[in-house]
Amino acid sequence: MKRISKSAQNSGKAGRRKVVKQKRVQEGSIHVYFRGNGRFNVFYDDYDKIEFLKKCNSAAEKHNTSIEQIVLMDNHVHIHVNTKSLTPFVYNLIHGYSFWYNRKHGISGKLFESPFNSSQKNSADWVLKSMLYILQNPLSARICKHPKEYAWSSYHSYFTRGNAKSNPVIKHLNIDKTFIYNHFNDLQDFERAIFEEAANIMEVKETENKKWETIPDAEVVRFANIKLNGRSVFHLNNDEINLIILELRNEIGASYRQISSILHQSFAYVKRVCR
Description:
The chain is α+β, with helices and mostly antiparallel strands. The chain folds into 2 domains: 28-207, Alpha-Beta Plaits, CATH 3.30.70; 217-274. 51% of the residues lie in helices and 10% in strands. Strands 2-3-1-4 form a 4-stranded antiparallel beta sheet. Strand 2 and strand 3 (76-83) form a beta hairpin. The protein starts with 5 loop residues before the first helix and ends with a helix.
């Protein structure tokens, strides 16, 4: 038998060394992002979103966390926080909402992908860019043309106007407005910065030749809710699911990705039904 030298053995061990995972930063100014498991929708109506805001406010109070920005999209969430204990805050929020959501819809299983994503922002410039990125999400997703048209973002918490107090984010979530008020003198400057960030994001998407869906996600959700007519997507039989898949595809031209996300069906299954 051929003997293996010690140097070769050590070399083999070195090659098998595990990469040490970097610990998640728990304190500071942090952008948090998480999305639905399998990229499926996690919000189907206003009640879902309101409950999420309530859970977020409760988790923030319990875990020494200030919410500085937030936007709720149909299948993902962005939050910018200033915190002393990031993971306990996020886990309390995710687990609390998931328990409520699963009980409401009569389902079980993991609602959000794990682990969640987070990125510490170490300078004022990066904090500002993170916040503007969060607020521009509905614009680059083509849900609206102006941030005031999208109810589910912390945009409405700043430079409040008229009936702004009726906004659900203002009603159900305490937003720390200090940073934004230290950077912008008025609403016009604030909005201009959001639009500039949205333009930058859309320019990058076009440069990368990313395909745009012909119809915004929000419109697909609205059409799906009409077809569901009060029924839960989780309680449909196969024939009913297949019918709605075909209606979404043929009547409004929804993409396979959009249909998959909204109806909690795999991309491959949706594609197969539509063929």
